[in-house]
Amino acid sequence: MRCSRLFPLMDRSGNSKKGPAGPTLFRQIATRLAAFTLLFALLDVCIVVLTYSSQPESLAQELLTLEAHKAEKGTDLQPDLLAGPPGAEHWSARYIDPDTNAGSTPPLRAGAAPGMLMDWTRRERVRGGYRITGVRSVLQNGQQRWLFMQFEGDGIRPYVPVIANEIVQHVALPLIPLSLLLLVFNVFAVRRVLKPLRRAEAEVDALDPNNVLLRLSEAPAPREVNTLVRAVNRALTRLDEAMAILRGFTANAAHELRTPLSIMQLSLDRLPPSPLRDDLQADTQHLTRLVSQMLDLAQADAMAVEPETPVDLADIGRDIVAAMAPKVFANQRDLRFETSGDTRALGHAEAIYRIYRNLIDNALAHAPGDTPIVVTAGPGPQLSVRDYGPSISDEDLPHIFERFWRKDRRETDGAGLGLGIVQRLAQAHGGAITVERPIDGGALFRVTFAPLKHGE
Amino acid sequence: MRLLLVEDNARLASLIREGLNRQGFAVDWCETVDGAEHALKINDYDLMLLDLGLPDGDGLDLIRSLRRRHDTMPILILTARGGLDDRVTGLDAGADDYLVKPFQIPELAARCRALLRRPGASLGTQLTSGNVILDSAERTVTVGGVPIDATPREVDLLECLLRRAGHVVAKPALEGALYSMDAEVTPNALEACISRLRKRITAAGADVQIRTVHGVGYALFAPVSADG
């Protein structure tokens, strides 16, 4: 590793992306749905209980049917061994033979034809309660038999299994699958409905203050989401207008400042040579540079780069080196250009030109006269400017991209805006600037851009 | 050489006129788009220096209307607009060059000369820089008045550099000039030729310098004292 350290100086997703506190909409809907289902089940149970308690006849019928089912399940079981309903007294159960009908006074219902058996139930009041008597047809081992049952009971207790059975049969069994189904359906429905919201969120995240032309897509989304999306878009439009005003201001300021500066400079040139004239000329040049840099920075801040244009970093690098070389050589300095690999990238040619220029100016300001400044395009969509001046100290490193920061405040050359401009222009490209401190001294500033899309 | 200056700031205009007059240009001045249209009807100009923000319109519109009329007069935009897209917009509209304020008279004069196809301080067929004089018709080179021996190729090379004295000439441009009729080009041919030329003129006592701009090309620089 040649470089002692590498500092990524740009973090576009630096803001905390942690979700806000509070449950998700999906969870809210699911909990509410579950609670509602529970309430509905409870209500259903109440209705069942109320209905049956007001109809003791049908309760008695159901009770005997339930007991008969128990007998049916227990093969060859003596019906007498059945426990009967809870709290039942004088429980008796036995099979009867319809043909013989011997000694079966009670089993046959009054008025029924002999040999003709049928299910029946009778409920009669006895002292301290009720007696329930009845016959049920039971299928055992494929053979039909007739079960006679009788018991006495009191209050609701004997009916509890019946009511429980009813609840299972008519409330739980249909309601549980329905609730589950509803829940599953809701998962999908809510997910689906929230999809445009998530898309809008992603779009808002992707919004770039440098590219205010972006808008959230409106269709197709539920009306509620669309209302929000439109409101956000209206806000973006207002932002856009504000940016346009700012850009307009920058252009006006440029004109208002540069014209008097031109007059000053040309007027000074006409004065007879004197040390005072030289000082004033130097001051004017400094002021000119300051104004240019401030305007460049203001413009870079408001810049909307659409890096869709393919550019060749090597072509731009050659242009800037050719343009700056005479001035650099006149100051007894050396400027070199190198290229490596494919140097094409997506970008704004003029902005990249200024990135190069500011980096070279920075190198000229910091490296001593006898060292070369090496400008490199590539490999890939990146450029770099390397000087062999003093290395950047740990102490200075965090400050070099700060606006108006200069290592030595007494230096009158430059405003400390050059690197800030480069950083801003790189960001406007969706790129980044890094500074490396090679072990053999100096500094290497590297700017990376978006690569060309495949096939271009 | 007659120039038309369109600039709405009177003080700046008078400073530019005076400066260019001293460089040997005759400069007419008007303040508005209308004034410029009028002046162009009456006189023929070799070059127009145009400010963009004018009281009665945008200079860019004037350029476009001139170019629509197939007027090929060179136009140099002289403006305070130094934005990222301004230069491209200006050149796209049909301007030939673009200079952002503030500027200095020597630079403005150099740009004007370049547009008027009179590069360097050429007089007739003679190209001069420092004590080096190249006669482009005779194909001879003198250093300090003394003729030197140079191959035709070296003279071609020196001519290229002299025509763009003070500026970097890219390698492909030099190679194109050297080998236009010759198919045989080796990668080091240009380098070798430059090296021989440099030795030759330095040995003859030339005060100009041929510098290598590594990775880009070469540039001929006049001695600092003689450079305006």
What does this structure look like?
Chain B: GO terms for molecular function: phosphorelay response regulator activity; transcription cis-regulatory region binding. Chain B: The modification 4-aspartylphosphate is found at residue 51. Chain B: It comes from Novosphingobium hassiacum. Chain B: Residues 2-116 form the Response regulatory domain. Chain B: Keywords: DNA-binding, Phosphoprotein, Transcription, Transcription regulation, Two-component regulatory system. The complex is a heterodimer of chains A (456) and B (228). Chain A has 456 residues and is α+β, with helices and mostly antiparallel strands. Chain A has 3 domains: 55-155, no CATH class; 207-304, Orthogonal Bundle (Helix Hairpins), CATH 1.10.287.130; 306-448, Histidine kinase-like ATPase, C-terminal domain (Heat Shock Protein 90, 2-Layer Sandwich), CATH 3.30.565.10. In chain A, 47% of the residues lie in helices and 18% in strands. Chain A contains 8 helices and 12 strands. Chain A has helices spanning 25-53, 56-73, 160-206, 223-270, 275-301, 313-330, 349-366, 418-428, and strands at 3-8, 89-96, 120-126, 129-140, 143-153, 310-312, 334-339, 344-346, 372-377, 382-387, 432-438, 443-448. Chain A has a 6-stranded mixed sheet with strand order 1-11-12-10-9-7. The longest helix of chain A has 48 residues, at 223-270. Mean pLDDT of chain A is 79; it is low at 1-17. Chain B is an alpha/beta fold and 228 residues long. Chain B folds into 2 domains: 2-115, Rossmann fold (3-Layer(aba) Sandwich); 126-226, Orthogonal Bundle (Arc Repressor Mutant, subunit A), CATH 1.10.10.10. Helices cover 38% and strands 24% of the residues of chain B. Chain B is built from 8 helices and 14 strands. Chain B has helices at residues 10-22, 33-42, 59-68, 86-93, 105-115, 152-163, 171-178, 189-203, and strands at 2-6, 26-30, 47-50, 53-54, 57-58, 75-79, 97-100, 126-129, 132-135, 140-143, 146-148, 168-170, 209-213, 217-221. In chain B, the strands form 4 sheets. A 5-stranded parallel sheet of chain B has the order 2-1-3-6-7, with helices on both faces. In chain B, strands 8-9-10-11 form a 4-stranded antiparallel sheet, with helices on one face. In chain B, strand 4 (53-54) and strand 5 form a beta hairpin. In chain B, helix 6 (152-163) crosses helix 8. The longest helix of chain B has 15 residues, at 189-203. The two termini of chain B are 20 Å apart. In chain B, 35% of the residues are buried. Residues 119-123 of chain B have low confidence and may be disordered. The interface between A and B is large, with 43 and 35 residues.
